[in-house]
Specification:
heterodimer, A: 201 residues, seven-stranded mixed sheet, B: 467 residues, alpha/beta, five-stranded parallel sheet, 32% helix
Chain lengths: 201, 467
């Protein structure tokens, strides 16, 4: 996995709450057997008209936000289906950070597996970041993972929390499966024990 | 020893390794697989030259893409859907995992097949690349959805990297009123907690109204725990559970059954165990409900009216405005005046035999309103066979319902069963998100009995008027 360091880029505002994974990527696009190439259908039903053609009103279609790297979204972002196609599409579009007041559990996990940093902030900080994101392409935010800081275009610094293990894996681009396989002997031991204790499993 | 919740007990018995920071390797007893969220995971294994660590604990079945019309014996027409199902055929064979292909009578929705075949047992950890894995919590199994990277992780290591969630108790006291079902309970709970109310928690459902439910009803309740944001839902196993499990093809037999039963009987929350959050609902207060908006938390009794965005606060004002517009409704409109175009009975939420019985009871001797499209999609080939044996299929067909083959069908628009833009559906499934049942489609979630009532009158209807 690609190493995550620092992002300095355009932040787009999506204040709507409860943005679900069906909105992020509708199921017609889940019929792929690949992980790549889904950026073009990110937010498909909001981004394009029923008859095709871009919806100019949609934030990521506005000239200022075409190169968005940071998304500032409403509460409970990523609820619904477990589809990892949602973070795949976000990553493929070029978004590396999503900021909200809360995320749905499975989506939150899926982000880390794909080198995306989801950041949970308090409501008052969220309001500051949302305002900043509304300023368009000249207002660039900086997200520094090592220091756990977001800096707005006005220089306001907001600190954030992150699980230390997840931070370590993102910064070093570590692959979970490889790490777990190093603990293989623990799994063997558990299986030996469980096959005695619960042989019917 | 300090008192433990049911969740604590299952968790503690499955930790293979715990790091200093509390990050655990949780051992997985059952891994269910379907065709949509697994191809990239199997591809990952192939690229790394890794086998499936425990193929005997891994079960696959195609369900999302599978057409439900009889002509599916001729193959799947949509090339992308066909490729996904063929990929699962190949992956199941190459990696030696248990498999129920499309033409097998046991094929169906993965969350219906697992319990039906006795793969899901109390006290297990169960995962699947599908958020409705929460269903299996009805057995007192810790069951939750995972993403594709985690599917690959479980295939390779039979474990998941996890941190423990918090404990939440949802108690539903007393008895349900006539016409009120497990679906109404689970929707009413989400109406109470909101879709993010369970985030960070594992919910244990308890109380007399939950105890009184059949296994089918309990699966309906746990199925939608994810819609309340919870990682999983749980119900402590009891005689109802053991009765359901006994004799299933993959349930333990003989001395192993006795040993299993002894352990299963220890799977309950100890007195005085700590819950971080408690919600209590009175069973008597729950009415037959429907959703009016595009989030499962948008729940109201059928006797209510469509709300106004001004009834809400904060971000919900804009969300409600958007929902009402998308749904083509007007604030103040009576929900029972909302006319529908389609009725869909099925899905992992309500595609089991008891759901079909409830619908048949309302539909017996009645006709579907003229011009309305109505379909019943059994959750598995075995549910379908049983419904035919019990004479339910005849009732449905005589009423004017299409009687389909098993699959996810119109719950999500990945197969030919879809809504057209603006089409309004009374659905027994689990999500009313924008476009969930087809681009521009409008979904009202309700129970099978309520869906049957709506099919007869052509509008959202209080089932109690037809009882």
């Amino acid at each position: 996995m690609e190493k995550f360091d620092k992002v300095h880029g355009v932040a787009a505002p999506m204040p709507l709450i409860n943005i679900d994974t069906d909105m992020i990527i509708p199921k017609v696009h889940l019929k792929t057997i690949k992980r790549s190439g889904l950026g073009v259908v990110l937010f498909d039903e909001m981004r394009y008209h029923d008859h095709g053609g871009e919806n100019e009103e949609f934030v990521l279609n506005k000239p200022a936000y075409r190169n968005t790297e940071i998304l500032v979204a409403g509460d409970n972002f990523g609820c619904g289906s477990s589809r990892e196609h949602a973070p795949w599409a976000i990553k493929d579009f070029g978004i590396k950070v999503v900021i909200s007041t809360s995320f749905a559990d499975i989506f939150f996990n899926n982000c880390f597996k794909n080198g995306i940093l989801p950041i949970v902030v308090e409501e008052e900080h969220h309001a500051v970041l949302m305002d900043d994101a509304h300023k368009g392409e000249n207002a660039r935010m900086t997200v520094h993972l090592e220091d756990q800081q977001i800096t707005t275009s006005d220089g306001i610094v907001i600190e954030f929390d992150i699980d230390p293990h997840r931070k370590h894996c993102l910064i070093h681009g570590l692959d979970d499966i490889g790490l777990t396989m190093e603990k293989d002997h623990h799994i063997d031991k558990f299986e030996d024990h469980a096959s005695q204790a619960r042989p019917w499993v | 020893m300090s008192p433990k919740t049911l969740y604590d007990k299952i968790w503690d018995s499955h930790v293979a390794h715990e790091a200093d920071d509390g990050t655990c390797l949780l051992y997985i007893d059952r891994h269910l697989v379907h065709e949509v969220t697994s191809p990239q995971a199997f591809e990952g294994l192939r690229m790394a030259g890794r086998p499936v660590r425990a193929p005997e604990k891994t079960i696959a079945v195609p369900d999302h893409n599978v057409p439900t019309t009889p002509d599916r014996v001729n193959g799947i027409e949509n090339p992308e859907s066909r490729i996904q199902v063929e990929a699962l055929d190949k992956n199941a064979k190459d990696f030696g995992i248990h498999y129920y292909p499309v033409h097998d009578v046991r094929q169906g929705i993965v969350h219906i097949v697992g319990p039906e075949q006795g793969w899901t047992l109390p006290g297990m950890t169960v995962v699947c690349g599908d958020s409705h894995t929460a269903t299996h919590g009805a057995f007192g199994a810790l069951a939750h959805g995972i993403g594709t990277s985690e599917v690959e992780h479980v295939l390779a290591t039979q474990t998941l990297i996890q941190k423990k969630s918090k404990n939440m108790k949802v108690e539903v006291t007393g008895k349900l009123q006539p016409g009120v079902t497990a679906k109404d309970i689970t929707l009413a709970v989400i109406g109470e907690t909101g879709t993010a109310g369970g985030t960070g928690y594992v919910i244990e459902y308890c109380g007399e109204a939950i105890r009184d439910l059949s296994m089918e009803g309990r699966m309906t309740v746990c199925n939608m725990a994810i819609e309340g944001g919870a990682r999983a839902g749980l119900i402590a196993p009891d005689e109802t559970t053991f009765e359901y499990v006994k004799g299933r093809p993959h349930a333990p037999k003989g001395a192993q059954w006795e040993a299993a039963l002894n352990w299963w009987k220890t799977l309950f929350t100890d007195e005085d165990a700590h819950f971080d959050k408690v919600i209590t609902l009175r069973g008597e207060d729950i009415a037959p409900v429907v959703t009016w908006g595009t989030s499962p938390e948008d729940v109201l009794p059928i006797t209510a009216t469509v709300p106004s965005p001004d009834d809400f606060e904060g971000g919900k004002v804009e969300a409600a405005r958007r929902s009402i517009e998308y749904m083509g409704l007007t604030a103040g409109q009576k929900l029972s005046d909302v006319e529908i175009d389609t009725v869909f009975i099925g899905s992992c939420t309500n595609g089991r035999i008891e759901d079909l019985r409830a619908a048949a009871e309302i539909l017996k001797g009645k006709k579907v309103k003229e011009g309305l499209r109505a379909m019943i999609v059994p959750g598995s080939g075995l549910v379908r066979a049983q419904a035919e044996e019990e004479g339910l299929a005849e009732i449905f067909k005589e009423a004017g319902f299409e009687w389909r083959l098993a699959g996810c069908s119109m719950c999500l628009a990945m197969n030919p069963d879809q809504l057209q833009p603006g089409e309004r559906c009374a659905a027994t499934s689990n999500r009313n998100f924008e476009g969930r049942q087809g681009r521009g489609g409008r979904t009202h979630l309700l129970s099978p009995a309520m869906a049957a009532a709506a099919a007869i009158t052509g509008r959202l209807t209080d089932v109690r008027e037809l009882m």
